[in-house]
Specification:
Layout lengths: L3 E7 L2 E13 L13 E7 L2 H10 L4 E4 L2 H8 L5 E4 L8 H6 L13 H12 L4 E6 L10 E3 L2 E5 L20 H8 L12 H7 L4 H11 L7
Parallel strand pairs: 2-3, 2-5, 3-4, 5-6
Antiparallel strand pairs: 1-2, 6-8, 7-8
Helix pairs in contact: 5-6
Length: 222
C-alpha cells in the first residue's frame, strides 16, 4: 500500500523510505498532524470554513469537507494509518461539571466514539488510533492514557517525558492558545469567538508526532 517513496540520507547513501498514506478524521485545523513528515494525508472535516484553514496550513494534503464517520466506513482499507478524533463534548468531564451551574443540559453520550473503536478493532489491519478526552464515566473500552487524553489503538503508545503543553484550556485567551498550540489564526475571518474552541480542539503537536512514531517504530531503519 505504500505507493509513494522519498529518499533520506543515511551513512553516505540514500535509503528508500515509503510515504505513509494517512487518513486524518475530524481533522479540525489538525494539531496532531503538524510534525508528521513523509506522509500523504487525506483529512476529513465537516466544517467548510475550518477545512479551509486546515488547507492553508497544510496545502499539500487532500482535504475533504464531509462526514468523517461515513468516510471511515467506506475508505478505511485505502490507508496505512488512521487517526480519528470524534467529537468529545458529550463525554467530557468539563461539560458534566457545568450541569449544576445551569450552563448546559444533560445529553446522551455520542456513541460514534465506540462505534469507531469497535469497527477498527475488528476490521482494520493497519495501525489506527481513536482519540478523545478522559470521560466523566468509566470508559466502556479500556484506553491508553496520556495527558488529558484517552487513546484507543492497535499498538503500544509509549509514555512521554516531554511537557504536554496544550493543556492550557480553561479561561485561556485566543492569543495565549495560538502561542500554546503553535497556530496563528490572525488571518482567519468569520469565526469570531469560535477561534478559541478550534484551538482548544487541537491535539498537542508533539504528542501527535510521538504517537505517529509509536505506530511506525522501525520506519527508516534498515
Amino acid at each position: 500500500m505504500w505507493l509513494f517513496l522519498c529518499f533520506l540520507e543515511k551513512g553516505g547513501g540514500k535509503v528508500r523510505v515509503p510515504k505513509i498514506k494517512v487518513l486524518n478524521l475530524y481533522a479540525g485545523i489538525s494539531g496532531n498532524r503538524k510534525f508528521w513528515r513523509n506522509v500523504d494525508v487525506t483529512a476529513v472535516e465537516n466544517n467548510g470554513t475550518i477545512a479551509g484553514i486546515y488547507k492553508k496550513f497544510f496545502p499539500n494534503d487532500t482535504v475533504i469537507v464531509g462526514d468523517a464517520h461515513s468516510f471511515l466506513l467506506e475508505h478505511y482499507k485505502e490507508f496505512d494509518f488512521i487517526w480519528s478524533s470524534p467529537p468529545c463534548p458529550t463525554h467530557s468531564r468539563m461539560r458534566k461539571s457545568f450541569l449544576p451551574r445551569g450552563k448546559t443540559k444533560p445529553a446522551y453520550p455520542d456513541m460514534t466514539l465506540y462505534q469507531e473503536i469497535i469497527f477498527l478493532k475488528h476490521h482494520a489491519v493497519t495501525p489506527w488510533i481513536v482519540e478523545n478526552v478522559k470521560p466523566y464515566y468509566e470508559p466502556l473500552i479500556e484506553p491508553q492514557y496520556l495527558g488529558r487524553h484517552c487513546f484507543w489503538c492497535n499498538f503500544k503508545v509509549k509514555p512521554v517525558n516531554f511537557t504536554l503543553q496544550g493543556d492550557l484550556i480553561q479561561g485561556s485567551k485566543i492569543k495565549d492558545l495560538e502561542v500554546n498550540k503553535g497556530f496563528d489564526l490572525s488571518f482567519v475571518k468569520g469565526l469570531g469567538k469560535r477561534k478559541d474552541q478550534v484551538l482548544k480542539n487541537c491535539v498537542n503537536s508533539k504528542l501527535g508526532n510521538h504517537i505517529f512514531t509509536c505506530a511506525f517504530p522501525n520506519r527508516g531503519k534498515k
